[in-house]
């Protein structure tokens, strides 16, 4: 069984965007469940799970591009006390997104969720992220639990359409472990 590799770069981006207080805290990968890794800071207040895309595609003017300069996309679910559902979803594209863009995560070609890019990003890091709408978070988590595959379709600041494919194997166990570790 392959160990899931998760670059530290993405962890730091996640922490910078979601909370400045975690920077002063130690964070570690607690464990992994198939394609999903569980991360727990020392204070156990900003726990999250994450998965890298297993397939990345890019299209311009409807034609598939053979070579694109970008990092792999990463899908995050954070346990959040401030969210009504207890969770928040986010996507790190690995490239600058269309400012204020609306992007779609489709689970098993059926369930669709909108992720929103920052309308007025203040720095290069904010330009690479999109977040769920809070009223969708619980439904998103429930659909990810029973799904097999999710595809994030996003648009770069240059107009390139990207499709990042995520395998959902291990998501349910990862989210259950996250909840247990960060009560």
Secondary structure elements and their pairing?
Blueprint (H helix, E strand, L loop, with lengths): L7 H11 L8 E7 L2 E6 L6 E5 L2 E6 L2 E2 L9 E6 L7 E6 L9 E6 L3 E7 L11 E4 L4 H10 L2 E7 L5 E7 L3 H11 L2
Question: What is shown here, in short?
Answer:
This protein has 183 residues and is of the alpha+beta class.
Query: What separation lies between the terminal Cα atoms?
Result: 30 Å
* Cα Rg: 15 Å
- CATH top level label: Mainly Beta
Would you identify the CATH H-level superfamily?
Answer: Invasion associated locus B (IalB) protein
What's the domain count?
Answer: 1
How would you state the average pLDDT, rounded?
87
The amount of beta strand, in percent, is: 35-45%
Sketch the major β-sheet: 12 strands, antiparallel
Count of runs of 4 or more consecutive helical residues: 3
The helix-and-strand class reads alpha+beta
Shape: globular
Identify the CATH architecture. Answer: Sandwich
Quantity of strands, as a count: 12
Q: Would you tell me which CATH topology applies?
A: Immunoglobulin-like
Entry keywords:
183 residues; alpha+beta; Immunoglobulin-like; 12-stranded antiparallel beta sheet; 3 helices; 12 strands; 38% strand; disordered N terminus
